Sequence to fold (599 residues):
Amino acid sequence: MNNQNAKLNVLYQVNRDEASIIKPIVAGEILLRINKDDRPITKKVEFFSRIFSCKDKSNIFALQELQNWIKDELDDVEDNKLFQTLNYIRKISSQDLIIWLNSKVKHSRIERRIQSSKIDRLAMKLALVKRTDTILDPTSGCEGAWLDILRENKNQQVTIQEINPVLAGIAYLNGKLIKANNLNILVGDVLNDPKYIEDGQLKQFDKVISFPPISMIINSEVINQNSFNRFRYGKIPRRGDYAFISNAISSIADNGKAVLLVADGPLFQSGLAAKIRKNLIDLDLVEAVVSLPSKFLLGTAIPVNLLILNRNKGAFKGKIQFIEADQNGWYEKVLRNFNQLTPLGIEKIVSLYQNKVDQSGVSRVIKNSEYKDTLSVKRYVWPTSIEIDQTTYSISQQNLMDAKMINLGELVEIKRGYNVIRRNENGDTTLALIKITDIDDLVVKNKALSEISISSNPDRYLVRKNDVLFSIRGTLGKIAYVDKSLGNAIANANMVILRPKNNNTNMKWLALYLNSPLGKFFIQQAAGGTTISIISPTDLEQLKVPVIAREKQDKAVEKLEQEKLSLDKQKQELMRKYIQNDNEFFNSWGMDKILHKED
Fold:
């Protein structure tokens, strides 16, 4: 932080009770400087008069919102407080003032300061912006990739829309300070009322770069109205990620491209989200997904990605690229809970994207036909090493690709556990309830099971002998083989029951495999979730299992059990000798004559 910003922050802290007045005063001072008005001010009414004398026909609404905010915030401020602050900040450069102001305002829908993480710059480079391109950011905030683009080309035609009037006003100041010539600032909710309309139609752009709010609950009425037929790729879920994605696609020209920031969830979620994803794949709109390391947004550990959509993929038609950016040297820690991309990381990601190359553990190109119901990068780009149970394993990519595997769903039925809620806890049927905590060392501790009474038919939830229980939420991949009848016992909703479809699978072998390092590797790759790890039954169906004949499975399990019995006997004998050795030492001074062991 430079000295000027430090001075402003001191002022901000000293006047904490009146901190709200400093931001509009700073904004007003910047506005006056932009209009080259450096005349002395002696009265607050004069300050307001000068502010409202500023005119700009090209961005009249953003300017008006800024002017109104400044007046509303300062209406009740005493003249001497206004002048004291003005005199202080007049010693500070406009550049330092705007940097400070940007850092003190919050994004309209998600609190984030993403500029310093360099994602803006990466998005701009992935969009491959040409100097003649028209650019749209429909959820702009007060700064972003759009501002980086204008810094490089003041004549770029850029349109932004922001729902928060104050941020739109500060965006106006940002654009003016860098002398942007073709910046069009619109104010309003883009889902409800897109403002970039031309001849009654939604205007389309060469490039759309947008970092929309993550997992925001949206108004279904707005989506149902479907103005300009923007939401035509499938019914929009309750959370708005795909509303913003659909809006972005509808806003790009026939040869256009969109780069959007999205969380992991929209890339793998089932239901309505999955249907939209499939439609985007079928329309060949998805060009690439870049998975970024964790902690790239301030205040949250939610993993994020850059989703690249392209209406004209050219020679890349029918293909999708996946890039894993969590690589050594590609990012650095700048705060305790905040990472940012390095110049090397940006260069490497852009190079991989431009050249569309496969690189082990980093990048993979697939055909659309290879799409596996998810756009999660880790389902396609496998790491070169992985840590499992505090042991690091290197991964032979070629051997993994060559291994003969089958999907778990071809071997077993996957039955959901019972969802315990208050209204169904009372009923005529009393059952034992198996929870994740009841599983230990591949077995169910059935002596400790709690009981529940339910009114619905429990048959489909009952656990049978020879089933395998698998946890799919929270503590993933906790496994138990049911080697005997547990009576009337059901699994809770955090687990599924794996039941053999035929006699071709030794279920104990399957449980042992799923609990092995290779099984845990595939489980980790299939896992999703932002705050809680989950595996959907659909993803679990696609979990890879080695193709091994039943006879070999039986022999492997039998050998393992025999060896364990032998080793257990040896262990018991060693423990007996260990205790005997201790006793001989203790009794060497006659302890056995004083202390006698009771049977």
Notes: Residues 559-593 form one domain. The first strand starts at residue 134 and ends at 137. DSSP finds 19 helices and 26 strands in the chain. Confidence is low (pLDDT under 50) at residues 107-116.
